[in-house]
Amino acid sequence: MRPRGERQIVVLADGGFDLLEAKTAVGVIRYGIDRVVAVVDQTHAGKHASDVVGIGTDIPIVPTVGDALAIAPTSNTLLLGTAPRGGILPASWRVQIVQAMRAGLDVINGLHAFLNDDDELAPIAAECGVTIWDARRAPDSHRVADTRAHALPATVVLTVGSDCNVGKMSTALEIDAMLRRRGRTSVFVPTGQTGIMIAGWGVSIDEVISDFTAGASEDLVMEAAKTASTSSDIILVEGQGSLVHPGYSGVTLSLIHGSAPDALILCHQSSRTQIRRYTLPIPSLSDLVALHRAVTAPVKAAPVIAISLNTFGMSEEDAQASVGRATAETGLPATDPVRYGPGVLADAIEAFSRARAAS
Amino acid sequence: MRPRGERQIVVLADGGFDLLEAKTAVGVIRYGIDRVVAVVDQTHAGKHASDVVGIGTDIPIVPTVGDALAIAPTSNTLLLGTAPRGGILPASWRVQIVQAMRAGLDVINGLHAFLNDDDELAPIAAECGVTIWDARRAPDSHRVADTRAHALPATVVLTVGSDCNVGKMSTALEIDAMLRRRGRTSVFVPTGQTGIMIAGWGVSIDEVISDFTAGASEDLVMEAAKTASTSSDIILVEGQGSLVHPGYSGVTLSLIHGSAPDALILCHQSSRTQIRRYTLPIPSLSDLVALHRAVTAPVKAAPVIAISLNTFGMSEEDAQASVGRATAETGLPATDPVRYGPGVLADAIEAFSRARAAS
User: Is B250 on the interface with A (CB under 8 A)?
Assistant: First the structure.
């Protein structure tokens, strides 16, 4: 597999390249450090990515992998950017994947179906000397967390949330990109499927056996610490789930205690009042700040230092009002990093990091 | 596999039948509802179980499975009661297991190595018409918790702890036995290896993929609710780990939110001040009571209603003093259920259950 930053990616998203289906493809285009050179989707062939998902004006959509190779001969990686309906790899996808491998492209696969276990595709990959990366495959290492990430020089910041799907990944990615624009060394730590495909590494921690989930989280931060190794560096860990989510709270707490953050950014969708798909009310922001303080204190204290709001679909007036209310309620800086940019959040982290280095 | 209560168990604990190594064997002898008829251990052959582990005056220790079958011809189940050193099944154990299966004994296996996957043993089991139960095998069902256990008629009580190995399983088993002696319908819900081997069912929830750990916990309580189905019944869930354990806290929170208890019993070893194998201090009992209140409140509120202390190794004076301090600090009833019996804890649950039924 090529190192990060050297990949030239063809995204296979046949039949599903749109904002709803192609969350991973869109994330890779928006936030990835590898260049996307073409998207394969018969449905939208002839357009550019930006015509369909609003970003990627220079990325052509073509009907087949063969067309992609013809117009982008430097491409070296095929990324499966949507899940085929039904969960089974269709024959038409197999043909395209084989064609890509025969042309020397590595394959990044985000499906639950692991291509390295596929009786047809795995031998062809070996024969062609290309790598298949099954991004969802949990690591074999079964290691219980042992607090190795508790005293790193870099400032570790974790995004936590009031629920799933409120913007924890996007918040971390937006801040990471801004800190790097400001000249800081910042590393984004992916902990879920889409984050992994965007960054090109990471572990889907919710797929890890629960005894080892905190250990896997710790390993990820230790890996990031190889790059973000000084007291002025930042490690931004993508959060998962929520402490108040009845299904996923354990994943969340494993990630909190395993990654051992110095500080937290609390993410919330302003218009949401109940846990999605449940009837449980979401606590107030100040209650959530207190809950995170209570949970981190016994293992490694980590204050919430800012609030990241997702105001998607709200009027400008309502969005501004919700930001004002968040700050009034918690006394913390708040913003919507997609609507207003992540400056407020990056500032909070830089201030925290400076104070930490000085103490 | 024979139904619970009908098993006559030979425990295979060759070379390791003592209090340290044979936690499972001792638990099955002390708390199991199936009768243990012999223990196989060459090291202690000729003695009785009570000579080595303090309980089981009527259980002979014999050198081989053949000897066990000779003196206890009604035996129908072989239980592997210790983990062989190195984690690999030694050849000498294989011989004994095969001999047991050829004599018609089912096998209950608590090792990480699954005998149903063993190329030698699985076919012999099939040939002999006996069942191998790999107790650690996580269920195939991958279900996210959906709050089905939130509103059961029975009172659900979960033991939680300040650390691992403080007595959460023993506390639940002691209370369960006493409630049944008092004529109540009470069901013990096993969530770990030893509890499963004792009760003959259950799921090792720390072996479940973390996304589904709360779901597996919920399933266990729903299974118990088939037996403990009225408002005067009690479901006692065996706790795992600790909310303040850096490695296992996620397992603990999944179990808390998945099993949806109505009340908690907080377990603590009086002499322990640090998390075992770590350098982290254990919070005070009152801080732990507050932490559990904070964590349960947003999903389903569950107060700590009593404290269970493990005063193993302490003088009688020190043990009594620690019980007094626990009550003074928390305002809750406290006792050591092994040293003093679980009456205080069972009383607390009965009072809670009555108040709950009346409200």
Answer: yes
